[in-house]
Amino acid sequence: MKNSITTAALAASLAVSLAAPAGAQPAKPVPKPATYAVIGDWPYSKVLLDSARSLIDSINADPQVELVLHIGDIRSGSMPCTGAGLEPAPASADPGWNDGIFRLFEQFTKPFVFTPGDNDWTDCHKKKQGISGAPMKELAAVRKLFYPTPGTTLGVQKKRVQTQARAFDRGHPGDAQFVENVIWQQSGVVFVTVNMPGSNNDGLPWTAPFTDEPARMREAAERTGAGLRWLQAAFTRAAKDNAKAVLIGTQADMWDPEAAASDGDGLGGYTFFVHELANMALRFKRPVLLINGDSHVYGTDQPLADPSSVNGRIHGTPAVPNLTRITVQGSTNAPAEWLRLKIDPAKAEVFSWENVVYCKDPKTSCP
């Protein structure tokens, strides 16, 4: 019968009321600080594989690090893709590259979260990547390899996370394909990754023999819609749980000046996402940190703080003073660095960070 209460439930309720004064609430555990390692555009090329061991050793040797976040691009934009699902595979393809990177990921002792980048699937149709893969087939292969157990991270120590493959909006069952989008909570912070790649969010037409403009447009629309819903889910959880902050990890630099140039790839493919991020951040009112790779050079800014600034005009949002953005250093640059991110929910500035050098010049020798 509706609105009924069982005897057992009533007994439990009475036990609570007898055990504590009226109106008293059980004390919630105080969230503890945490430290993460963030990397991107790694290992990026065969030349840089020699320095890969240095990065793994550097992060594994840091006793503070509790999780590693990789924000995309396991190969350079001039390297071939795997040719997955193509018969015969293109002569230019490198079928074993992804498998080798997976083995590297599994050498990190702490939980390892990976969100894919444009060079890993979106751009595989391009001439500079040897026209070596069909974008959707490459993405399917990435999902199969790097997300073997949905809702579980990579790394020696595994961590349970919430994946969109299982926690999708029931009104949009197609969102279940996005196994790579995950959410987790730690230290009073909600963390979310969204598959939002460079090359204007897969906004560039695929080239022959993979030309299929309706399929490309459908892919971009479906993935962006799923990403928006996943972002909303993260902020909804943050509000419900009274989180101290939200961190978003994506590959794309949505304010990349090279892409914004007249001869660049463009940035319009990110505008819907940026507007939703702005709205969610303003409503949340607490610190929001966006971490991306893509443009390779370390930097930090508040891209939406001033609507009249160069970055502020790109997507035309209102001022968002509580959004900070970090672009991590790519592995091709000297010195090669990983980002040590500290999360302290007891501080007003929840996030602090520093770069850790693991190789003076990855193109020559390490350390």
Description:
The protein has 367 residues and is α/β, with parallel strands linked by helices. The protein has one domain (29-359): Purple Acid Phosphatase, chain A, domain 2. Helix content is 28%, strand content 17%. It has 9 helices and 12 strands. The protein has helices at 7-19, 49-60, 97-105, 135-146, 198-202, 213-240, 257-260, 271-284, 310-315; strands at 34-39, 65-70, 112-114, 162-163, 182-186, 189-193, 245-249, 288-292, 299-301, 323-327, 336-343, 351-359. The strands form 2 sheets. The protein has a 7-stranded mixed sheet, covered by helices on one side. Helix 3 links the parallel strand 2 (65-70) and strand 3 (112-114). The longest helix has 28 residues, at 213-240. It is globular and about 60 Å long.
Strand order of the largest sheet: 4-5-6-7-8-10-9
The helix tally amounts to: 9
User: Structural class from helices and strands?
Assistant: alpha/beta
Distance between the termini: 70 Å
Biggest beta sheet attributes = 7 strands, mixed
